[in-house]
Amino acid sequence: MQSTPKDIIEIQTIKDAQNAVTKAKRTQTPITTIGSSHSHSLLVQNSTGIIITTEQMKGSITINESNMTATIPAGMKLHEVSELLWNKGYALSNQGDVDVQSIAGLIGTGVHGTGLKHPIISSYVQDATLVLNTGDIIKAADNSEILEATRLNLGALGIVMDVTLSVVPTFFLKEKTWKQDVDTVIAEIGKLAKENEHFEFFWNPANDKAYIKTLNPHDGPSTQSDEPVQGYVDYSHRVFPSQRNDKHTEMEYSVPYEDGVSCFLDIRDLILAGKHDILWPVEFRTVDQDTGWISPTKGRKTVTISIHQGIDQLYEPFFREAEMIFRSYRGRPHWGKCNYLTSDDFASMYGVGWRSFWKVQRSLDPDGVFLNSYLRGLRDLQ
Ligand SMILES: Cc1cc2nc3c(=O)[nH]c(=O)nc-3n(C[C@H](O)[C@H](O)[C@H](O)COP(=O)(O)OP(=O)(O)OC[C@H]3O[C@@H](n4cnc5c(N)ncnc54)[C@H](O)[C@@H]3O)c2cc1C
Could you tell me the pTM of the whole model? Predict the structure, then answer.
């Protein structure tokens, strides 16, 4: 996502954040704080106000051994975090398929990996430090409602300065990958999802084949193999991420686990019908349920289905048609990816959780200093 803000302010310290907030209030312009700006959604667009960048918000990670948490500077990238954690004997229990995101961006949009026992990373948030629109500093964990809203906050509450996440002792993972006829994968999907700690597949419309990946805990040590199906073993944080160098845009919906296969087959039919000229793969993952107010995986074990298109190719007609399929399965969109929903759609999707989120947001930021036009539309049109 690109935008042309009136101002770009790089912050590093709480004082910098407070100065930026003062400037935004003086000029009556909204603030959008960004991490790696890796989201495909309107959350990170701001053409009327100030973009705050957090690249320099780094430093050390503080471990609390007794409650197994790590307090991490908000702008630190996941690949830096996971390396530093490993050196201290800790790891995140799950990660998504890239590790370039910032810690605040990850929780801000509800990022997830794959695995039926693994919820979104926001579920592991135990605390965070926020700078509010008054310049006041708060700890989210001091108020249970603020903590809940902060877990998946859309950047709408304030500037997140650090995040405290649950961590686990370091572990090794074994990765195996192979290609298979997609119908065979579909027939075995329940088994694959249940018998592997992390299972996913990409379906390639060009040849109707699936590229399957499983990751499972291993005693180590690291190994190498030229034969992907035999697999290799390495530190967890080296195995989770993949290289994603091709620029694309993406829509992802979470549907109830039981409906995952039917929904995938409908999306596959849509693509194979050929109307939209789609050659990008479709990704199929599983995620555990959680209790987040506006979490796509709230209250139900989930299959996430991601569709992609090249950044310079026509995608909207395809995404809109696919969105109707996703919604027919009670799908909920990923906050960091494309959707065409209105505030009313979200209100009926999340019910009381939607109202609770905006109640906290309004109490912390009544003037909407942290709302770009997209977020303001979501809040004020309810
Ligand atoms: C190639 C690729 C692979 C991806 N893989 C996955 C995946 O496996 N799983 C998945 O779930 N998603 C995935 N995504 C989506 C994406 O990584 C996420 O949406 C994530 O938010 C991006 O993190 P970021 O640091 O770039 O955040 P940004 O895009 O910069 O910001 C995201 C949100 O966080 C807010 N924010 C950021 N920093 C702060 C701060 N310090 N204070 C307050 N608010 C803040 C922003 O305002 C915005 O609302 C992928 C995206 C791409 C392009």
Answer: 0.96
CB of residue 168 inside a 6 A radius of ligand 1: no
* Domains of the chain, residue spans: 62-169, 172-333
The CB of 37 under 6 Å from ligand 1? The reply is yes
Q: Does residue 95 line the site of ligand 1, with CB under 6 A?
A: no
Closest CA to 57 of 47, 71, 69, 42: 71
Ligand 1 contact, 122 CB (< 6 A): no
Amino acid at 291: T
CATH topology of domain 172-333: Vanillyl-alcohol Oxidase; Chain A, domain 3 (3.40.462)
Fold annotation for 62-169: 3.30.465
Measured from the Cα of 77, ligand 1's closest atom is 25
- Pairing mode of beta strands 50-53, 7-10: parallel
| pLDDT tens readout for residues 248-260 | 899 999 999 999 9
Over the stretch 282-333, which tens digit does the pLDDT of each residue have?
Answer: 999 999 999 999 999 999 999 999 999 998 899 999 999 999 999 999 999 9
Structure tokens at 137: 């500093």
